[in-house]
């Protein structure tokens, strides 16, 4: 049997760290983003029609009334499914929110602290190409609402009624029926009825990713996410039927998706290969899956420690652990977007809203970034209030010395004024004490 997955040794391990955007895509996207920035709604409409997202006479903004109307055109059982999923995402996000709080502490002469406050307006992108993803609308918009964002926009091309209904259930204020770079540009810079957003989030194709990279100096973004990826760490105790199904599930995301099996057992790998072939034969979208598998591979390690090292070197978007002691293996892993522990915890449950977010870092960037969460929509603002003149003097003196050390005399004089105030207050206090 010809192996479906390329079989590599640990020394042959490639990296998942790929450039998120190639030069040609970046150049083409820059032209679109600049056009929308400069010409606003006119450019947005032109690119939307040119790329086939809308007809010239079609509106591209759905307000709340239009979203409500979409809800009435979706089957009740589908609405209930979306509601249940949104509720699970909401509960997890609320638990996350409760874990983060404002704080204050004493400093010499007063108090300092920080507040955690939401941005005012969020733009959430959801793919609408090969696989329209209402689940992504729920993941992004529900999380933004729980964070306290005042206004939430959804952008996605050629929306089906279920996408519009998901936006309404998630609490979105409007739906922009535009995709690609022009959608990201509109939410970052504003374009007619599309207002400027403070943060732009959500996965998309290479043009969406390129546009997010371009506007990241203007607005906050979540991350530059590429094609989906998963590493399954499994030994001979795992069920090859389950493991094969979980690999195929992630491979079907995109022809550029990458799946990796890391194991200590060659016989187990043979069993997984046999299952991959059997399950592929009856998979409707096997052409996409096969294209993805051509860039995927399996790695044999001699030890459990070696399996953990391989996974940590890859730093994947998803890692699924199915070993004799899955919790112990999971504890050895350091770099990943989201972790799934045990055979009853497939990545698909994370994809479809059991709670943790499915918008995650890819291409090895899990070493530096976390997935979309409540924190994506919150800002940390620090504050200082000095109120005790007696304790301020050493701090003010240090500020003067540091300012002059750095050649910033204006800073020093600003601090010296406070020293003068402190001396005056000290003299007044002595006089008052003497009168007593």
Shape: globular
Trace the largest sheet across and list its strands. 1-12-11-10-13-14
Distance between the termini: 101 Å
Can you count the beta strands?
Answer: 15
Cα Rg: 27 Å
- What fraction, in percent, of the residue positions are helical? 40-55%
Structural domains: how many: 3
Please indicate the percent range of residues in DSSP E strands (runs of 2 or more).
Answer: 15-25%
Keywords, separated by commas or semicolons:
3 domains, Rossmann fold, six-stranded mixed sheet, globular, alpha/beta, 436 residues
Describe the structure.
The protein is of the alpha/beta class and 436 residues long. The chain has three domains: 141 residues, 3-Layer(aba) Sandwich (Rossmann fold); 202 residues, Rossmann fold (3-Layer(aba) Sandwich), CATH 3.40.50; 48 residues. 47% of the residues lie in helices and 16% in strands. The strands form three sheets. It has a six-stranded parallel sheet, sandwiched between helices. The protein has a six-stranded mixed sheet with strand order 2-7-6-5-8-9, sandwiched between helices. A three-stranded antiparallel sheet has the order 3-4-15. Helix 8 links the parallel strand 8 and strand 9. Helix 3 packs across helix 6, helix 4 runs parallel beside helix 6 and helix 5 packs parallel to helix 6. The longest helix is centred in the last third of the chain and has 27 residues.
